[in-house]
């Protein structure tokens, strides 16, 4: 008798499980609209006769069947993922979406559609290595759940909207390798900040000295001027500071270095003057320190890991630095 009861119960459980994982009808409609926005033969696995949760680049919630992730990735070696055209407005009709990614599609052009503002559950937005152009959208601060914003290696231009700093949960901001202009907003606070390879000007906001959130900062290959010391500090927890190839000009003599976390510093090809403080010897984690092509003078601190890992090229082409690994001080 127990076996007779067990079989129907198992079948019923499997049926319920199957229903819960099936793609939502409205989400399938939105996905088919996305497919139809691209040229024919794009996204060949997106077939209306199959559960859309099984389609390439689509992931659904196991308990809801709603589309939570849409990640288009690839390069020329993976043609199905290379998209040509603009980002479809119908992407905004996937209300449960948490992750949206377009990468490796240089044929993706146009601007970022304002319909994405409807994706209020979005936690990660990545549009990289594409032909997308225009300004950074003003609607982005409306995506209050956003934790990762990556818009690198596109053709975006104009200023960085200060309102991006209002995204309280944002931990990664990557706007590198675009054509952005203007100054760095003082509101930015993400732990990982990548703004390299743009045309940014002005100085680094002095208020950054009060922020403890920065962990990795890349500002290289811009036209920044003035003082970079706000990123430094004996008790800061930053690990990477990359500032090379700018027009930074400040006295390095009084700069103090994080003692527990600092690993990588590149301030080469700037106009930095003064000397290197002996306090850098207390930076226990330091592995790389490049201040070449500046206007520094004085004796290079020696001892500990700092001396162990540094070579002459990292101090070359300064005004009058001396001591190992350069020539002896007079």
Global mean pLDDT = 90
Shape: elongated
CATH architecture: Alpha-Beta Horseshoe
By helix and strand content, what is the structural category? alpha/beta
Please report which band the strand proportion falls in: under 5%, 5-15%, 15-25%, 25-35%, 35-45% or over 45%: 15-25%
Provide the number of structural domains.
1
Strand order of the largest sheet: 1-2-4-6-8-10-12-14-16-18-20
The profile of the biggest β sheet is:
11 strands, mixed
Domain Leucine-rich repeat-containing N-terminal plant-type: 26-60
Protein name: Polygalacturonase inhibitor-like
Organism: Iris pallida
Pfam families: LRR_1 (PF00560), LRR_8 (PF13855), LRRNT_2 (PF08263)
Structure explained in plain terms:
This protein has helices at 2-21, 25-37, 304-309; strands spanning 58-60, 67-72, 85-86, 99-105, 108-109, 124-130, 133-134, 148-150, 155-158, 172-174, 179-182, 192-194, 199-200, 216-218, 225-226, 240-242, 247-248, 264-266, 273-274, 288-290, 295-299, 320-322. Strand 1 and strand 2 form a beta hairpin. The longest helix is centred in the N-terminal third of the chain and has 20 residues, at 2-21. It has an 11-stranded mixed β-sheet, with no helix packed on it. A 4-stranded parallel β-sheet has the order 7-9-11-13, with no helix packed on it. The model is unreliable at 1-20 (pLDDT under 50). The protein has one domain (65-75, 95-322): Ribonuclease Inhibitor (Leucine-rich repeat, LRR (right-handed beta-alpha superhelix), Alpha-Beta Horseshoe), CATH 3.80.10.10. The radius of gyration is 26 Å and the shape is elongated. The chain has 3 helices and 22 strands. The protein is of the alpha/beta class. InterPro entries: Leu-rich_rpt, LRR_dom_sf, LRR_N_plant-typ, PGIP. It is found in: Cell envelope; Membrane.
């Amino acid at each position: 008798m127990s076996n007779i009861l067990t079989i129907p119960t198992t079948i019923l459980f499997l049926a319920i499980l199957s229903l819960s994982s099936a793609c939502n009808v409205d989400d399938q409609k939105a996905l088919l609209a996305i497919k139809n926005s691209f040229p024919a033969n794009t996204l060949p696995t997106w077939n209306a006769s199959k559960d859309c949760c099984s389609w390439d680049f689509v992931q659904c919630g196991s308990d809801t069947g709603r589309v939570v992730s849409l990640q288009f990735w690839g390069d020329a070696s993976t043609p199905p993922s290379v998209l040509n055209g603009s980002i479809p407005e119908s992407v905004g009709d996937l209300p449960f979406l948490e992750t949206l990614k377009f990468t490796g599609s240089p044929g993706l052009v146009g601007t970022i559609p304002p319909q994405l503002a409807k994706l209020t559950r979005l936690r990660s937005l990545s549009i990289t290595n594409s032909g997308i152009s225009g300004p950074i959208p003003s609607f982005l601060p409306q995506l209050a759940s956003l934790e990762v914003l990556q818009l690198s290696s596109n053709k975006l231009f104009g200023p960085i909207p200060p309102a991006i700093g209002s995204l309280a949960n944002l931990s990664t901001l990557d706007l590198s390798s675009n054509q952005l202009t203007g100054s760095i907003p003082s509101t930015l606070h993400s732990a990982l900040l990548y703004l390299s390879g743009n045309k940014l000007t002005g100085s680094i906001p002095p208020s950054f000295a009060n922020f403890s959130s920065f962990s990795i900062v890349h500002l290289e290959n811009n036209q920044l001027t003035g003082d970079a010391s706000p990123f430094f500090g004996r008790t800061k927890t930053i690990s990477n500071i990359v500032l090379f190839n700018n027009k930074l000009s400040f006295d390095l003599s009084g700069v103090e270095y994080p003692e527990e976390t600092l690993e990588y510093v590149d301030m080469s090809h700037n106009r930095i003057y003064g000397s290197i403080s002996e306090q850098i010897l207390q930076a226990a984690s330091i592995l790389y320190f490049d201040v070449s092509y500046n206007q520094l003078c004085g004796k290079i601190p020696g001892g500990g890991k700092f001396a162990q890992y540094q070579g002459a090229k990292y101090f070359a082409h300064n005004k009058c630095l001396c001591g190992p690994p350069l020539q002896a001080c007079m």
